[in-house]
Amino acid sequence: MFAIIETGGKQYRVEEGLELNVDLLKVEAGAKLSIDSVLLVEKDGDTKIGEPYVKGAMVECDVLGHIRGKKVVVFHKLPKKDSRKTQGHRQDYTSIKVKSIKA
């Protein structure tokens, strides 16, 4: 059984027991999270596709914590101007674990 959920403007394929990092959510570590924006649910060969979401479908998750991704170096250079700028960026993520998929 798997589902495709939408959170933070991105879509993820999730199964029970899966741990994944999603864009930062405003929830505390250790809290329960219910995601009801389920786009597709597949169970034993029976597929339900939402328009845009599957009615009555929900994914229950546990919030493991908040983490930061690897640093990405951004380098800007203007040719013939002797102008350079280096920036770094680290994306914030929320780590979640999928407990159950209800459809």
Q: Which properties best describe this structure?
A:
103 residues; four-stranded antiparallel beta sheet; mainly beta; single chain; 0% helix
Structural notes for this entry:
- The structure is a single chain.
- This protein is mainly beta and 103 residues long.
- The protein has a domain at 2-66 and 96-102.
- It has strands at residues 2-7, 10-15, 19-23, 32-35, 38-43, 46-49, 58-68, 72-78, 83-89, 92-102.
- The strands form three sheets. It has a four-stranded antiparallel sheet with strand order 2-1-5-6, with no helix packed on it. The chain has a four-stranded antiparallel sheet with strand order 3-10-7-4, with no helix packed on it.
- It is elongated and about 60 Å long.
- The model has no long low-confidence stretch (mean pLDDT 96).
Write the layout of secondary structure elements.
Layout: E1 2-7, E2 10-15, E3 19-23, E4 32-35, E5 38-43, E6 46-49, E7 58-68, E8 72-78, E9 83-89, E10 92-102
Antiparallel strand pairs: 1-2, 1-5, 3-10, 4-7, 5-6, 7-10, 8-9
